[in-house]
Amino acid sequence: MTATLVPVRSSASEAAPRTHAGPRPATTAYSAYPSFASYVRARQPVLLRTARSLTSNPCDAEDLLQTALAKTYVAWDRIEDHRALDGYVRRALLNTRTSQWRKRKVDEFVCDELPEHRETPTGDPAEQQALHDAMWRAITKLPARQRAMVVLRYYEDLSEAQTAQVLGVSIGTVKSAVSRALGKLREDPELRHTA
Questions:
Q1: Which pTM does this prediction carry?
Q2: Which tens digit of pLDDT belongs to each residue from 142-171?
Q3: Which of 49, 153, 179, 189 has its CA 20 to 30 A from that of 102?
């Protein structure tokens, strides 16, 4: 006696035939918004610097950024102007940090002796500001192309390849122009006097 298998159909499968003939869409979190993943890859270093300015611990800054990015991901399809994403994420960082600060519990411990407080030696803030101002004045003296490359490389923390892509030049051009610009900055009399 040979048994034959007959496919059994339920009434639900008969009522709603499958109309999508292609492969099923991926179910990963980033596949729904590929532009979100590319945004995070491109802007994460800059946003992490912002998060670090809001916290004293680098690990807390990374957690803060992850939380803000999760909130941004949830609202991604509601954000109409994607040119203002940095502002949206920065606002999410600030709001999240404020909420964390309000919720934190301060533990107080009674002890017989006060712990020693060691101050880390830091430079004079006035001298640091003077050096910062002198550096910026020296950068503004550079030709426009070199100035743009220095700002993108060292202030925006872009790689040589990213800088080349933004400016529409080759990586070799970025390397040589930045090298010449740094040479000019080293020779700037105001910077030598300040340092």
A1: 0.39
A2: 998 998 999 889 888 889 999 999 889 999
A3: 49
